[in-house]
Amino acid sequence: MKKYVGWFTVLCWLCWDEPATAQNMQRVRQNLDTLCSAAFGGRGYVQHADSVAAQWLAKQFSVLGLKPLPQQSSYFQRFELSVNTFPQPIKLQIGRRKFRIGEDFIMHEASGSSYFSKLKLCRLDTLWLKEGAAQTDFLQKDWTKTAFWFGSATAKLLLKQKPDVLQKFKQAGAWLEVTDGKLTASIAKEANRPPHFKFKRALFDSTARTLRLEVFAEQIPHYQTQNVVGYVRGTAQPDSFLLVSAHYDHLGTMGKTALFAGANDNASGTTFLLEMAAHYAQNPPKYSIVFVAFAAEEAGLLGSKFFVENPLVPLSRLKFVLNLDLLGTGDEGITVVNGSVFTRAFERLQQINDQRHLLKQIKARGRAANSDHYWFSEKGVPAFFVYTMGGTAAYHDVHDTATQLPLTAYREVFGLLTEFLDTVP
User: Fold this and answer.
1) Which residue in 19, 28, 105, 131 is a FRET match for 160, CA 20 to 30 A apart?
2) Are residues 253 and 347 in the same domain?
3) How far apart are CA 255 and CA 253, in angstroms?
């Protein structure tokens, strides 16, 4: 029943036609809640949740008055990727105790499928990772009904082994990485190892001798996704462009119960992009301004890479690219990636903040391939990636939810960035 209610809700959102005005914080919260809802499935690849989000975003673009770019018949720029997913229930039992996906453990993104009613749980001997008698003995044994457990430091050494040694480890029934760190999930393009659990050390019983598991991984080699692109025509120089971007995708779901809602990363940036679109639809700038909600950022900046390789506007006519990611806090100010690269633009941003006393501080960083600005700046297009500092520590986990985001400096960042774009020479 819940499934049908969820899809009915999505249809209602797609049909919502209320006109917008910039910086409507009630609408910001509503959009944030929508993007983070279970009906949007973490904006991942199970049940095409990313496409549900893309359709909703295209509807918002239309309501706000954005148009598809000239020569484009829709708001979508489609492309393919390979992705590994976990669409079915995931079960893990160590000894007699059962554990919860998302809270107690997560799957490594490159995990494969397996079902074992019982595996022998064995600590990985680090001597097996070194040439010698212990490694020779290890290579001669059958480990298919064994689950190896090890720490995160050992995990890094394991993946650096010679092909024959690594292949032997991959024949094991499962890997259990016991970690002191937080459970940080990611996305892989393929399954290249046995089920690899990342497990909280505080919950691990090293005296346990058995492990039971059920994991189904589905690798999709030609998954079709889409960037969502709209624009507002400029008033004075419409053949020159500003570009504002935010990735709308996230990690999706893991099993049937773990939802990675991605509130700060990056529903926050996506809602911010919609607010900027609302503002500029009503206040067109001198340059045309393109708004791009990028897909597949979490899979390796793939949406922005595809856009730069297949540009819908000439890259030579882009005056500036402003990428919005992780904008849910701000009590400690913002950081600007590429701020120390495009120094004049950063100085102008800093000057606006100094004059208007908006944010506590603005920090500059150098080049980094950590969001969708990257491919533009690699092609020589001036581009900033702006993220807020302070507040929530949730990142790539099930705790990055809409209710946890304070949006502390949302209005101030909005004022700063719109004035910055308005003064691009």
Assistant:
1) 105
2) yes
3) 6
Q: Supply the pLDDT for residue 335.
A: 99
* Residue 86 covered by a domain: no
36 and 100 assigned to the same domain: no
Instruction: Look at residue 18 and tell me whether its pLDDT is greater than 70.
Output: no
Taking the model in full, what pTM does it have? 0.93
pLDDT score recorded for residue 386: 99
Question: Quick one: what percent of the chain has pLDDT higher than 70?
Answer: 95
Structural domain range at position 295: 2-81+224-422
Structural domain count of the chain: 2
Q: What average pLDDT does the segment 139-167 reach?
A: 94
